[in-house]
Amino acid sequence: MTYLDQINQAVTYIQNIHPEETPIGIILGTGLGKLGEQINTEFEIEYSDIPHFPVSTVESHSGKLIFGELGGKKVIAMKGRFHYYEGYSMKEVAFPVRVMKKLGVKNLFVSNASGGLNPDQEVGDVMLISDHIDLFPESPLRGQNPEEFGPRFPDMSDAYSSRLIEKALEIGEVLGIKLHTGVYVGVPGPNLETPAEYKRMRLIGGDAVGMSTVPEVVVAHQMGIEVFGISAITDLGVEGKIKHVTLQDVLNAAAKAEPIMARVIKELVAGL
After folding, report:
1. Distance (Å, rounded) from C-alpha 206 to C-alpha 222?
2. Cβ distance 258 to 32 under 8 Å?
3. 148-180 confidence digits (pLDDT tens)
4. Which of 68, 103, 107, 254 holds its CA 20 to 30 A away from the CA of 121?
5. Is residue 118 within 8 Å of 184, Cβ to Cβ?
6. Torsion on CA atoms 32, 33, 37, 42, rounded to nearest 10
7. pLDDT over threshold 70, residue 59
8. Of residues 130, 77, 153, 71, the one with CA closest to residue 108
9. Residue 63 — φ and ψ, nearest 5°?
10. pTM
11. In contact, 151 and 96? CB cutoff 8 Å
12. pLDDT band at residue 57 using 50, 70 and 90 as cut-offs
């Protein structure tokens, strides 16, 4: 069975339950599952019930596809995502995005927890992703490229929607919310970075570093989906501010940033 066949089987399964097209997709990252509670949920589907769908193995990630309303708009939300470090291929990590596209998604909102590289950031801050640097060892576009996936060589100069970033900054200004804007560095993980690695990532232009987002965004952009990315700064990789970090520290910091992220995403969705 081909990769495309697997995607189509997953789509058919979901459409048999929910045939209505849904224009907005949301991927909820580490410690940000409560953002899903803002959604007026109509129903949920367990990842394990969907043919060929990966299943999250990370403690802080649930495993449900949520259908409902946010800001008066129909949305699909992934409560829990997949990572390269779990042993999945990049194609498997991005599989849900290809499914979302076939379910009607035109706008994708991607959230994550990340380590701050910019000295202006503090733990609990929120960063809008304006661009990324891909340090994964493999592209999710590697291999056969059916025409319906999009161009074989997609241009990535505008992977993150400047239109939505501008609107988010306006929302932040109106609400009195501090929002950073910067470049996200995607790495394989699962280990956190050494001080020298943090320094290198800052030198090459990074403002935050994390272990997700890049594969989903690359595939979404290839398929013509408008993307908005947002990061919770959960620890710092800035010289002089680097501390020992546990998963609980990350979750606590994400919980601090989550209300801001939820407000921004909800306002953006309502304005679409």
Report:
1. 23
2. yes
3. 999 999 999 999 999 999 999 999 999 899 999
4. 107
5. no
6. 140
7. no
8. 77
9. -145, 60
10. 0.94
11. no
12. low
Contacts of 242 by beta carbon, 8 Å cutoff, 6+ apart: 195, 198, 236
126-134 and 180-186 beta bridge pairing: parallel
**Cα torsion at 32, 27, 197, 140 (round to 10°)?**
160
Look up residue 38 and give its DSSP letter: G
CA distances to 153, 180, 185, 193, 197 from 204, rounded to whole Å, are 24, 18, 9, 15, 11
CATH number 3.30.1360.20 given to 3-270: no
Distance CA 235, CA 241 (A): 9
**Tokens 């960063």 map to which residue?**
127
Return the number of other C-beta atoms located less than 10 Å from residue 1's C-beta: 8
Domain range summary for the chain, segments of one domain joined by +:
3-270
At residue 15, the pLDDT reads 96
Strand partners, 76: 25, 67
What is the residue-wise DSSP string for 44-72?
EEEGGGSTT------TT---EEEEEEETT
d(CA 182, CA 207): 5
